[in-house]
Write a structure and sequence with these properties.
CATH superfamily of the largest domain: Type I PLP-dependent aspartate aminotransferase-like (Major domain)
Oligomer: single chain
Strand order of the largest sheet: 1-7-6-5-4-2-3
CATH architecture of the largest domain: 3-Layer(aba) Sandwich
Number of domains: 2
Helix content: 40-55%
CATH class of the largest domain: Alpha Beta
Shape: globular
Distance between the termini: 24 Å
Number of strands: 11
Order of helices and strands: HHHEHEHHEHEHEHHEEHHHEEHEEH
Number of helices: 15
CATH topology of the largest domain: Aspartate Aminotransferase, domain 2
Radius of gyration: 20 Å
Strand content: 15-25%
Structural class: alpha/beta
Largest sheet: 7 strands, mixed
Length: 353
């Protein structure tokens, strides 16, 4: 995977970005929640009423045994969770396309001390049979010991693990004394795409720990580490502090998650983003020279387009080239993408082709 970018500040200011859902604004209901939280004094570091309410909402969605800890960002969620559950002689197994491998600047290795075993994932997903050969290292003192399998849901390629696939990986991990972690930066999009609940997809499927994403789903900043099994969160509060992920004014992060879970804002945002990706895919696949390369299951469209078209389009729209050699691009939609945005983008693509 290679990200290539032509930065055009004018286009970034005057047209909708299709580069990332991170580029979207903050949802109005989230901003309102922050403003509502900004009244009077509140105990710092999470000992406030808003944080208690947000934690209760997570337990409602993930089960009473779940324990949630709010952090600043996705890398912080992944790194703090993984470092809490490993020792430096352990190995973390993940897809070669995963965020912890490609886009976290070596932070997982630096802070966990662990080796990352990456597996080929042409569709963004990894399977138990790919992990099986790594088990020959178990008990051999010269090799890093497999400890955690990390899945990305939805994947970096916009695809989704089915519940059956997650359950299979969880059973495999537990049968071999490993844990299952999910990087859920876009977990809301995955759940929305399948029409299930968080509990069905995550808790009931045997996941041990989840990095729950909010930034890509309409909040200003903040993610959450959710432990699903009793005892796994023991002493994590100290790891969060050492990881520099403990917010003093926690109520402002917590208020955003309370807003996400109120009136199903998380679902409305994710469903809309997914629907806009479907609309984009339906329209661009009709154009000669455009070939969609991955199933469009969430809010990302991956496609190959002629090389000369990329530069023309990037002069008008902000998006990433996923694979330079294949001339493959990634177009992302968000909760605020509109059908008009899609029509304008497709018209520009027609002209560029």
């Amino acid at each position: 995977m290679t990200f290539n970018l032509i930065i055009n500040y004018h286009s970034m200011l005057t047209t909708r970005s299709f580069a990332s859902d991170n580029n979207a604004p903050v949802h109005r209901e989230v901003l309102d929640a922050i403003i509502s939280a900004n009244t009077g004094d509140a105990v710092a570091y999470g000992d406030d009423a808003i944080t208690r309410r947000a934690e209760s909402l997570f337990r409602l969605h993930f089960g009473e045994e779940s324990e949630v800890f709010f952090v600043f960002n996705g890398t912080g969620a992944n790194v703090s969770a993984l470092s809490h559950l490993t020792r430096p002689f352990h190995a973390i197994i993940c897809a070669e396309t995963s965020h912890i491998q490609q886009d976290e600047c070596g932070a997982p290795e630096k802070f966990t001390g662990c080796k990352l075993h990456t597996l080929k994932s042409p569709d963004g997903k990894i399977r138990p049979q790919q992990v099986l050969p790594l088990l020959h290292s178990v008990g051999f003192q010269h090799h890093a010991q497999p400890k955690i399998i990390s899945l990305t849901q939805s994947t970096e390629l916009g695809t989704v693990y089915s519940i059956a696939e997650i359950q299979e990986m969880a059973r495999f991990a537990h049968a071999n004394q490993m844990l299952l972690h999910i990087d859920g930066a876009r977990i809301a999009n995955a759940v929305a795409s399948m029409g299930v609940s968080f509990k069905e997809m995550i808790t009931d499927s045997g996941v041990d720990v989840l990095s729950f994403g909010g930034t890509k789903n309409g909040i200003l900043l903040g993610e959450a580490v959710v432990f699903l099994k009793k005892g796994l969160a023991d002493n994590f509060q100290y790891v969060r502090k050492q990881s520099m992920q403990l917010a003093s004014k926690m109520r402002y992060i917590s208020a955003q998650f309370e807003a996400l879970f109120t009136n199903e804002l998380w679902l409305r945002n994710a469903s809309h983003a997914n629907q806009m990706a479907q609309l984009l895919a339906q329209k661009v696949q009709l154009l000669p020279g455009v070939n969609i390369t991955q199933p469009v299951q969430t809010n990302g469209v991956f496609a190959t387009i002629p090389l000369h078209t990329i530069e023309k389009m990037q002069n008008r729209y902000f998006f990433y080239v996923w694979d330079n050699q294949q001339s493959e691009v990634r177009w992302m939609t968000s909760f605020c993408t509109t059908p008009e945005d899609i029509d304008n983008f497709v018209e520009a693509l027609k002209e560029s082709l």
